[in-house]
Amino acid sequence: MQYDIVTMLAANLVFSIQAAPAVVIVATLIRSLMLLSGKKRAFRSWTRNALLSALTIIFLPGMIINTGVRYAICSLFRIDLEGVAAGSTYAELNLFLKVDSPPRVAVLISALFVSTLVSIFIGFSLLFLPVVLLAGMPVILLCWYLSLSVLFNSSLRGGDVSLLGAALRKHPGKGIVELILALSLLIVFYSFFAWGIGA
Fold first, then answer.
1. How far is the CA of 17 from the CAs of 21, 84, 102, 122, 159, in angstroms?
2. Taking a C-beta distance cutoff of 8 angstroms, is the pair 117, 17 a contact?
3. Which residue among 35, 46, 114, 150 sits deepest, i.e. has the most Cβ atoms within 10 Å of its Cβ?
4. Inter-axis angle of helices 137-152 and 2-36, to 10 degrees?
5. pTM
6. CA dihedral 69, 147, 36, 17 (to 10 degrees)
């Protein structure tokens, strides 16, 4: 049983790395389409987008897990974090409140990449681990719900884009070079490692 769990976790790690771009793109597209369907302003309602806010509340456990992982990883990368705030516009958590002292672009992209991988790994582990452990159906359904919650929240957020923009403005020359270099390294990584393993 222990060997099966280790094997599953190792296979899940490889699968999470391979699937990370697709998960982020799909989750971001879903959230973006919902954002576009919302109102630009809302004075008589508590939210600009009732559907997105409802899904955010339904998948709140996944958002809490993602935010916790993002906070831990960003702290390890020494990114200046002030705390966590809950926005009423779309009922979501925002980690990057302090954009006036952004990190280097390469540091930020590395932290976002690692934290996203960890979140996706947790999401897929919750999907497969209960089956390996032969858990009961209530536990399996709970883990599947948490898995879907985590994967749904594994998207690019407005706070990520705001902090990246602030980092580029603070380091206009080196920031662009770091951004191009980081994206190039990710493309090479997925070309020779992630997608190559599945070939």
1. 8, 27, 27, 12, 23
2. yes
3. 150
4. 50
5. 0.84
6. 60
